[in-house]
């Protein structure tokens, strides 16, 4: 019967049917079920490491820190802002805002609304970061949780409409 092995020195799995005796000296025998459970855990973000006996164990990733949430928040907020602008036919919110003063009334209105909304969103996001640093929330929210509490576009007259159409 074929056996499954794990090597701490290589961090790899070996199958005696494939590798025969050509395995690292530190390879330890494990069951196929153990290997499958480890690979499933790895697919969910864990890492596979050897314990003190050289046997493989799944190590869960560390919980996100406030700095992780803050970094994710900045990227997520900008993606959200740009996504709303794209829904209205602009390349990005910056592109939309560049239409300020346009002779097309809707584009000018979009630029004014987009600029007011952007400013309110970033002020609120930066305030959330300052508040969270002063008193870290428990548990830490996801970026999506924080965005849900930020000013929403409709409150600034920024609504989804066909590109160039009156809102």
Helix-strand blueprint:
Layout: E1 4-7, E2 12-15, H1 16-19, E3 28-30, H2 32-43, E4 47-50, E5 56-59, H3 66-87, H4 93-97, H5 105-134, H6 143-148
Antiparallel strand pairs: 1-2, 1-3, 4-5
Helix pairs in contact: 3-5
Description:
The protein is mainly alpha-helical. The chain has helices at residues 16-19, 32-43, 66-87, 93-97, 105-134, 143-148; strands spanning 4-7, 12-15, 28-30, 47-50, 56-59. 47% of the residues lie in helices and 11% in strands. A hairpin with a 4-residue loop joins strand 1 and strand 2 (12-15). The longest helix has 30 residues, at 105-134. It is elongated, with a radius of gyration of 26 Å.
Keywords:
167 residues; mainly alpha; two-stranded antiparallel sheet; 5 strands
Can you describe this structure in just a few lines?
With 167 residues, the chain is mainly α. It has helices at 16-19, 32-43, 66-87, 93-97, 105-134, 143-148, and strands at 4-7, 12-15, 28-30, 47-50, 56-59. Strands 2-1-3 form a three-stranded antiparallel sheet.
Arrangement of strands in the largest sheet: 2-1-3
Run of helices and strands:
EEHEHEEHHHH
Mean pLDDT: 91
Shape: elongated
């Amino acid at each position: 019967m074929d056996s499954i092995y794990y090597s701490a020195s290589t961090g790899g799995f070996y199958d005696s049917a494939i590798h025969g005796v050509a395995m690292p000296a530190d390879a330890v025998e494990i069951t196929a079920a153990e290997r499958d459970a480890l690979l499933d855990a790895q697919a969910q973000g864990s890492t596979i490491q050897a314990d003190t006996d050289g046997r493989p164990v799944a190590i869960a990733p560390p919980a996100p820190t406030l700095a992780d949430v803050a970094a994710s928040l900045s990227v997520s907020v900008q993606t959200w802002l740009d996504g709303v602008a794209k829904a209205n036919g602009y390349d990005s919110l910056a592109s939309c805002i560049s239409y300020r003063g346009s002779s097309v009334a809707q584009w000018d209105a979009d630029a004014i609304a987009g600029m007011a909304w952007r400013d309110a969103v970033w002020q609120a996001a930066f305030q959330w970061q300052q508040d969270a640093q002063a008193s870290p929330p428990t548990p830490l929210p996801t970026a999506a949780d924080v965005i849900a509490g930020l000013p929403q576009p409709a409150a600034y007259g920024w609504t989804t409409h066909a590109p160039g159409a009156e809102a």
